[in-house]
Amino acid sequence: MKLSTKSRYGVRAMFDMAFHAGTLPAQIKDISRRQNISPRYLEQIFQDLKKAGLLKSRRGPQGGYSLTRPAEEITIKEIVLAAEGELLLVDCIKGRRKDGEAAPACEFDNQCVTQPIWNEGSRILGDYFASVSLKDLCEQGQEMGLEKELDHRFMYFI
Amino acid sequence: MKLSTKSRYGVRAMFDMAFHAGTLPAQIKDISRRQNISPRYLEQIFQDLKKAGLLKSRRGPQGGYSLTRPAEEITIKEIVLAAEGELLLVDCIKGRRKDGEAAPACEFDNQCVTQPIWNEGSRILGDYFASVSLKDLCEQGQEMGLEKELDHRFMYFI
DNA sequence: AGGAATCTCTACTGATACTGTCAAGAATAA
DNA sequence: TTATTCTTGACAGTATCAGTAGAGATTCCT
User: Fold this and answer.
1) Which residues of B are less than 8 Å from A117 in CB distance?
2) Which residue of A7, A112, A140 is in closest CB contact with B113?
3) pLDDT digits (tens, 9 = 90+) for A20-38
4) What is the C-alpha separation between A78 and A142, in angstroms, rounded?
5) CA–CA dist A1, A99 (Å, integer)
6) CA-CA-CA-CA torsion for A118, B8, B150, B50, nearest 10 degrees?
7) By the CB < 8 Å criterion, does A90 face chain B?
8) Architecture of domain B5-147
9) Is the pLDDT of residue B100 over 70?
10) H or E stretch including A66?
11) Structural domain spans, chain B
């Protein structure tokens, strides 16, 4: 019942980007250093976040990643969803989307008193995560007095 | 972020016991047959539930398991907690209980904006699970028209 | 044009936890 | 005394997680 590190790292990394946001894209090596996340692993996570449309990237020198939307429009739910794949406490709920393609994953489908419980729990958790945005985290960071790191690339211009 | 089968099976089994409750203890073989759970595996789960004080047992012929409390006093949270061990979305919260013994599991402990989010999410989920009792599930079962199986052991007395 | 920086894609791997199975033993009722 | 049922601990296959690795593509700078 634990969130994977992809979710935890993903949220931390996205917060880090929003918190230290500058004019240039943020780079893996900086984020991974500040958040103490393996850079190669973070690459993978960022690919997931990019596929989900939360990040855009630019290659080459001075390249990196940037948020596709303002921090107040990106919620924890979106990040967790992108990293985790889905936000369901159990698998036996799946298999009855609109198209009704897949077979029910559980033999007791629709004859099970626990199914609605897991459904509702998943929904409640998702709603909470959807109520928190990256901007909220940034404000929290301010209150906690976290230091904003100067972008070292600006040094060139001084 | 999935619940383990121990939790799912555990809740189903506990519901089954409450729903088919008779005067005699419920036996593994009956529950596992009705709920289609491996009997050997269910034994293990029941040991966990017994350690948590949710079940009591009696060996020998006509033995089995019974709930230690009325169905309306047993919540989903207790069962999940017993099966899952804990109800925390992340590990980085642990390590600062009242005794303050264990070291913080996370290097960013108390310097992390995401920690409160995972904490709150865990709490919200736990609160929801605590709001649902076995009795609620039984009523749901009634509404769904689930059939109550006659205890075959009563046959002897007819 | 060339070289360096940075992201991209895919594959691989070691450890861990999950999901059971199994066997021998202890208690209890008939 | 015997059949039944729970008790305890060990064991094993599989999947997932978490991270590493290498070769390639794109972009910028000179």
Assistant:
1) 11, 76, 129, 132, 137
2) A140
3) 999 999 999 999 999 999 9
4) 23
5) 29
6) -130
7) yes
8) Orthogonal Bundle (1.10)
9) no
10) strand A64-67
11) 5-147
